[in-house]
Specification:
- By secondary structure, this protein is α+β, with helices and mostly antiparallel strands.
- The chain folds into 2 domains: about 1-75; about 80-135, no CATH class.
- About 55% of the residues lie in helices and about 20% in strands.
- The protein contains 2 helices and 6 strands.
- The chain has helices at about 5-75, 100-105, and strands spanning about 80-85, 85-90, 95-100, 115-120, 120-125, 135.
- It starts with a helix and ends in an 8-residue tail after the last strand.
Length: about 140
């Protein structure tokens, strides 16, 4: 026959085992959720790393294009240089100019400036295209 205390003890043992099992399952579920979260987080980091690598390659390509543009401009500019307040162009053994700063800076066009007059403040020059005026206080340019 069954004794009530033994039955109660066995029932409590079964309940304890069931509780431990549920607790283990709960922790396993928590571990599973954490593991799943960590996997998803790792996937996000991989995507970020791939994106950063893509940006690095894009930066490298842009730098190469910038260098190519610089070389092409040097070819096109062919000896154009700045000596305030004008641009000049070195051709073989001679220097030609002066050229308009605004036209070259804005449109990459060499527009020869025209002498307007000699004044006490310096020589006045003007671009016939954009009408920009220049003062040369150095007296380096021979008035024409």
């Amino acid at each position: 026959m069954f004794e009530p205390i033994a039955l109660l003890t066995n029932t409590l043992a079964v309940l304890k085992t069931a509780f431990e099992t549920v607790s283990t399952l709960k922790d396993a579920d928590k571990d599973f959720v954490e593991a799943n979260y960590k996997v998803q987080l790792a996937e996000v980091f991989i995507k970020i790393a791939n994106t950063m690598a893509g940006f690095a390659e894009l930066r490298k390509a842009l730098d190469a294009k910038d260098e190519e543009i610089k070389k092409l401009r040097e070819k096109v500019n062919g000896g154009v240089f700045w000596s305030e307040p004008f641009y000049w162009k070195k051709e073989s053994e001679t220097t030609t100019g002066p050229f308009c700063q605004r036209c070259w800076d804005k449109d990459d066009r060499l527009m020869r400036v025209k002498f307007v007059g000699k004044y006490s403040a310096g020589d006045s020059w003007q671009c016939p295209d954009c009408r920009q005026s220049f003062w040369d206080r150095t007296g380096r340019v021979q008035s024409r």
